[in-house]
Write a structure and sequence with these properties.
This protein has helices at about 20-40, 90-105, and strands spanning about 45-50, 55-65, 65-75, 115-120, 130-135. The protein is an alpha+beta fold. The radius of gyration is 19 Å and the shape is globular.
């Protein structure tokens, strides 16, 4: 296969793969720990990292017949507050907007749902301490 014709001086932009930074890696590790804890608690994960124009929801799960929107917050320490404290009113409002987009897109607007927070705090030995806060807030 031949290369496409290019005029002299054409600029070709090659996108390099995006390398995750330390914060993104920590977040992914926290999400994996949260998912494991949720599965152990009997929830079934139905979607990861749902995105819409309104934002992102980390995990969507089913708990019996209830659709659960899960925000995972991960920290290495509490010097800037606990992970759950980061899910303030503004963040909650954004999660509700994203959840509505999810429900509309999946045609699930009549579904029973709730909002959970999973707090992941890494200890000094590198092990996660996971706390699942079911029904953490209501819109």
């Amino acid at each position: 296969m031949e290369a496409p014709d290019r005029a002299a001086g054409d600029v070709v932009i090659v996108a390099e793969p995006k390398v995750p930074d330390a914060r993104q890696i920590l977040g992914r590790e926290g999400e994996a720990a949260a998912e494991e804890a949720l599965r152990a608690a009997g929830l079934r994960i139905v979607e990861r990292r749902f995105r819409s124009r309104q934002g992102e929801i980390d995990l969507v799960a089913m708990d019996a017949d209830v659709l659960v929107f899960v925000e995972v917050k991960t920290r290495r320490g509490v010097s800037h507050g606990t992970p759950r404290e980061a899910v303030h009113r503004g963040k909650q409002a954004r999660l509700v907007r994203v959840a509505l987009a999810y429900l509309a897109r999946r045609r699930l607007l009549e579904s029973r749902c709730r909002f959970d927070v999973v707090e992941v705090l890494w200890d000094a030995s590198g092990r996660p301490r996971v706390e699942h806060i079911a029904d953490a807030f209501r819109p």
